[in-house]
Please model this.
Amino acid sequence: MPKDDLNNAKPWYVYILLCADNTYYTGITVDLNSRLEAHKSGIGAKYTRAHGAKEIVFFEEHKNQKEAATREAEIKKLSRKEKVNLVKLSSFKSH
Model:
């Protein structure tokens, strides 16, 4: 890949989505808004189709898919309490 393409690469995001039943779903994407709409419309993950997607309550930006996927795996291993604390400590506030 040419150097210019690397500099213009879109960042990847790891996110936590609050579901209608108050559970969390963690995933990765290059476009938070489109991914949220996909979850809400029922074409996102199987989990969110069953539990209903409400809003993104946390996200982090990463420079590539590999880093985002690694962080996603770390977050998925957290307990519910640890995820709640992560969301509370984040500076992200949904609209």
Summary: The chain has one domain: 11-89. The mean pLDDT is 89. The domain at 11-89 is CATH 3.40.1440.10 (GIY-YIG endonuclease).
